[in-house]
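Batch manifest line 277
LIGAND: nickel (II) ion
JOB: complex structure
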Amino acid sequence: MPILLSDEAVQQYHRDGYCFPVPVLSRDEAAHYRHSLEQHEAKTGTPLQGNWRHKTHLLFTWADELAHHPKILDAVEDAIGPDILCWTTNFFIKEASNPGFVSWHQDSTYWGLDPDDVITAWVAFTDVTPENGCMQVIPGSHKVNQLPHTDTFHKDNLLSRGQEIAVDVDKSKAVSMVLKAGEMSLHHIKLVHGSDPNRSKDRRIGLAIRYIPTHVRQTKVRDSAMLVRGTDKYHNFDYEPRPQADLDEAALRAHADAVERQVKALYQGTSKQEFRA
Ligand code: NI
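JOB STATUS: finished
ARTIFACT:
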């Protein structure tokens, strides 16, 4: 028996490579997390950017709380089993009326993780609609092999290398993952997905939390991750500490160390030293 997901949702995840919507937060809780992010942005005077959009759960207690949220982990356990590492978090923020987009891609392209039972919990901080650029997915595409990708480094592309699939994607098959604030979608590392710009008058904010079962390995670098549920008999990753206070010295140090490893893996073969802004 699954803990949180329905049997149908679990079956759909394995068959189609995704399922949604999964309600995990109330609207008030979603608003609280948005407020936590925006309070920080108000202090710095800029949207969260660069390295801080990645592995954000190592910097802020509220993001760490989300990475450990029991409902999110219950759903993730239903899909990948009880021994779970959080590998990374990535904010996907699309500003109002902004050209930022995500090209069609498979997450597996540069991550270096093996085997491919890697799941993303994409948690909506705002309502997510076709108008504001919700994620679109191609059902069942996680069952095809790794597709060739081209690095574009396009300035409006929100992906690390602006990578896009080098063959035609049949967009007529695309499904829009519409979510209310506080709901999440789940998707498989090899699922073909992308999203359009935000044409609405408000920001579109989602936090992608990437989870792996403890047997998964990083093939490119000695990587780090955080054990968030169960036990780890493999020790394939060095452990990251939970932040004790927002942006305290230990948190900043742990984040810098973790991001350095991740940048090495994701940008292997390029000269990049940090995430693009
Ligand atoms: Ni992706």
